[in-house]
């Protein structure tokens, strides 16, 4: 693969970052994942807007030049002949002597790379996800897309050991979100999903799906829901850029709805994909 590092496009085995990089030492870095379908970037401006917001929240002095970053993304797609997959982009506060306090004059490290993944033909689209719940022990600023995601990795490994595909985090009796996706249920034709706050990532796909739902005249209730309420829902689904809307068919061993991705979920999914391409 050809990857991007600090302004250069290089073969992946020639890309280097300092061992003193604060992203590496302290998780002092922000990332974005943009999905690519048919060589096209999905919702790119929204991802760049969130990147800028995350960077501002951690006071990282880095200007998100959307045109330049778009050109960089296009260059990576072209050089890697990417049809379906994703582009991961990360900005860290760069190398500095180890100190908890931010360096006065940081030199942010920018990296990006592609991964080729056939998103639109993954088996989970038809089968849906089985998820298990787990306490949300992540930090309290999940609205900032930092690389500090070890609890997510630990929980997802645990979920897979239990035979599930993914995890839904629970805090104070309510589902926050999935490992790397926002969580929704549908009951009596009403779509229910948690409100935006510091507790969840402000999903780009969440916003698009809610917009579609409203356009289609569906009722949306923005509020938290419990595991028990989700188990009794008509449908459940998750959203994330690479997943669009993907059905959830089992939660903690209890089948949701028919046990297959629900019709409203599939309708929202297809409308979103149609609109994106
Ligand atoms: N994750 N919640 C969390 C914790 C996430 O990490 C993500 C995305 C989402 C969905 O956001 P969006 O719709 O903007 O993709 C929700 C990416 C895909 C990742 O970490 O790979």
From TrEMBL:
Enzyme Commission number(s) of this protein: 2.6.1.42
GO cellular component terms, semicolon-separated: cytosol
Catalytic activity: L-valine + 2-oxoglutarate = 3-methyl-2-oxobutanoate + L-glutamate; L-leucine + 2-oxoglutarate = 4-methyl-2-oxopentanoate + L-glutamate; L-isoleucine + 2-oxoglutarate = (S)-3-methyl-2-oxopentanoate + L-glutamate
InterPro entries registered for this protein in UniProt: Aminotrans_IV, Aminotrans_IV_CS, Aminotransferase-like, BCAT-like_C, BCAT-like_N, Class-IV_PLP-Dep_Aminotrnsfr
Record keyword Iron-sulfur present: no
Top enzyme category: transferase
Pathway involvement of the protein, from the record: Amino-acid biosynthesis; L-leucine biosynthesis; L-leucine from 3-methyl-2-oxobutanoate: step 4/4; Amino-acid biosynthesis; L-isoleucine biosynthesis; L-isoleucine from 2-oxobutanoate: step 4/4; Amino-acid biosynthesis; L-valine biosynthesis; L-valine from pyruvate: step 4/4
Gene Ontology terms describing biological process: amino acid biosynthetic process; branched-chain amino acid biosynthetic process
Keywords: Amino-acid biosynthesis, Aminotransferase, Branched-chain amino acid biosynthesis, Pyridoxal phosphate, Transferase
Cofactor annotation: pyridoxal 5'-phosphate
Gene Ontology molecular function, alphabetical: L-isoleucine-2-oxoglutarate transaminase activity; L-leucine-2-oxoglutarate transaminase activity; L-valine-2-oxoglutarate transaminase activity
Similarity-based family: Belongs to the class-IV pyridoxal-phosphate-dependent aminotransferase family.
Function per UniProt: Acts on leucine, isoleucine and valine.
Protein name stated in the entry: Probable branched-chain-amino-acid aminotransferase
Native organism taxonomy: Bacteria, Pseudomonadati, Pseudomonadota, Alphaproteobacteria, Rhodobacterales
